[in-house]
Amino acid sequence: MVKEKVMEIFVRDIVKNLPRKKKKIYQFIVDIEEDLAKQSKTKKEFMTLLRTQLPHQQAASHFDLSLQEVVTIMEEAEDIISRILDSKIKKYKWMDYTEMVSEEQVDAKKEKNTQYFLCLN
Known about the structure:
It is built from 5 helices and 2 strands; from the N terminus they run αααααββ. By secondary structure, the protein is mainly α. The protein has one domain.
């Protein structure tokens, strides 16, 4: 769970720094895909919606590009994201710091099974 959240933060930061055109197209497609995922109850339903809604084709129409251009831009963006994400993950070390946090430092309203991590770069 923690790792997933951290990965999301890293990816958002990487996407934010993509070249403008790549960022706009990537975010356009991801937004459509996330919307379709929210509408879906199952993986099969999601895949069906992807086949009928065609996010890449929608992006091609929206940005007045060919489908191949959009696919190429998305592949480039995903390659950049993957490469930078791998590099960030290798640089960071996560330590479970839960036992080092005193009860006085913890909000009494928090659940007792909350974990605390120290991130070293």
